[in-house]
Amino acid sequence: MEQLSRIKTQELGLAIPLHARFLARDRQIVGTTKDYTRMRGLRVARGRLWNMAGECVIGARVADQLKLQLGDKIPVSKSTMFTLDAPPLRLRVVGVLDTSETPDDDAIFVDLDTAWIIEGLGHGHTRGAQHGSAEATLYTDITKENVGSFHFHGDRAKFPITAVIVNPNSDKSQTILLGQYFSPDETAQIVRPREVMDSLLERIVMIRSYMIVIIGMVSLVTLLTMALVIVLSIRLRRAELVTMSKIGCSRFTITSILGTQIAIIITAGTALATVMAILTNAYGAELVRLLVL
User: Fold this and answer.
1) Which end of the chain is more exposed for a tag (fewer CB within 10 A), N or C?
2) Are residues 221 and 177 in the same domain?
3) How high is the pLDDT of residue 185?
4) The whole model's pTM is what?
5) Which of 166, 190, 214 is the last residue before a domain boundary?
6) Pick from 168, 190, 212: which residue ends a domain?
7) What is the mean pLDDT of each run of 10 residues along the chain (293 residues)?
8) Distance CA 121, CA 11 (A)
């Protein structure tokens, strides 16, 4: 929030806070302001935008996949506010966004107060009860009747957010902002998403090209190695093949025997490679994570 205040004070552009640290039914909870919906051009298909803590507006795909309607409640998956044996905070659906064909369709939007309550920086309990007492039962539903009891501990100006979206007023404002955050002493950095994604995709395409070349070379070397092994095997078994010919085996029989042996080796190798590929696809990510950590 200190970074947000710093940008707002300079009046260099529209600054929109984002808090995206928690999930509800495996969907991202995004704490922000109504400026975000206007900046993104999001329209409410049913209901309205949030007006108080505890209310949420869900994306079109969230509503469709989770079968949610106005008035339904979504439990927060993870929250530091409550103990493990306590029921989670529940968000009440007051609006459903129209389809935008963007990641916004998969998000759950709340105000910053709700995001901070989920994080444990604020809570509500029975009025007049002391903190930590048995009477200070924490509310898990925020309603019009108890919203007044919710309060925060600490300096809200220093509360955490995940990022700030800045829409500069002009190219000059953009240059000034970029210059301010260019210093190596800064604890935050500015990135331009389009440029970052273009650079990332360029690297991915380049790496993909390298991988195709490497796979092609490895495949060629493998085929040559297989051919070499087969030729050497036949040469080493020359005496055996001569004996088979002398006892009456035809060329077709000898070729069939050698072909069958080669087919058995290739089949066994293919089966082993298939099993390894399936295991790698299923557990490769976890294995790499264990090796890295």
Assistant:
1) C
2) no
3) 78
4) 0.65
5) 190
6) 190
7) 86 90 91 93 93 92 92 79 59 93 94 88 65 56 79 84 89 84 79 84 89 92 88 85 86 86 88 90 81 68
8) 28
Same structural domain for residues 243 and 286? yes
Report the alpha-carbon distance of residue 221 to residue 214 in Å, rounded. Answer: 11
Q: Copy the structure tokens of residue 16.
A: 């929109």
Do 142 and 229 fall into the same domain?
no
Per-residue burial over 279-289, b = 16 or more CB atoms within 10 Å of its CB, e = otherwise: eeeeeeeeeee
Same domain, 202 and 121: no
pLDDT at site 143: 80
Q: Are residues 203 and 82 in the same domain?
A: no
- The verdict on 108 and 213 lying in the same domain is no
Structural domain boundaries enclosing 110:
2-190
